[in-house]
Design brief:
five-stranded antiparallel beta sheet, 176 residues, mainly beta
């Protein structure tokens, strides 16, 4: 027997944003309705791990006391989502890199606070890394001790990562 409420509204829209660590995000309906809360428990129940910003979504929505909320996800189409590097930057500080890529090691990173620090080695100044910079280059999580290639420059409070990527450790040089 279907235990779904009878006052569901089918909505087509796009994922406005979704943060796995916070467990929720929002959908912008195509029909002009207000934003709709999308909770991670709903996503997981319907077979999805996350929702990518800009992805198309078809879902059933219910009106709760605090606003609209996704009740059931029918489909998510990530082909409509832009690459993370094409998304707008949401930090007020941008930095111009002053050199080429350097290998660094993650000292610590706190996803909920949205930043962390990397280091070129003992005795060198720490380099600030912002979540928005990571997101622009397709990185979602960093762990202490992880190797990373970065370009950095001088920010208002010291060194700051301008570009980041994972090292290509799977492709060793070929000898002839």
């Amino acid at each position: 027997m279907d235990d779904a409420p009878h006052d569901l509204i089918e909505v087509r829209g796009r994922i406005k944003w979704f943060d796995v660590s916070r467990g929720f995000g929002f959908v912008v309906p195509d029909n002009g309705m207000p934003d709709v809360l999308l909770h991670v428990t709903c996503l997981k129940r319907d077979g999805y791990e996350t929702a990518v910003e800009g992805a198309s979504i078809v879902c059933d929505v219910i009106r709760r006391t605090r606003g609209l909320q996704v009740f059931r996800v029918h489909s998510i189409d990530v082909s409509t989502a832009p690459h993370p590097s094409e998304l707008p930057v949401r930090t007020h500080v941008s930095v111009v890199p002053t050199g080429g890529f350097e290998m660094v090691v993650v000292k610590w990173f706190n996803r909920q606070r949205g930043f962390g620090f990397v280091t070129c080695g003992e005795g060198t100044p720490d380099i600030f890394i912002h979540m928005e910079t990571m997101r622009r280059y397709g990185l979602m999580e960093l762990t202490p001790g992880q190797a990373l290639l970065v370009r950095y420059g001088d920010g208002p409070k010291g060194r700051m990562v301008a570009e980041a990527r994972l090292p290509d450790i799977g492709h060793a040089p070929v000898s002839h």
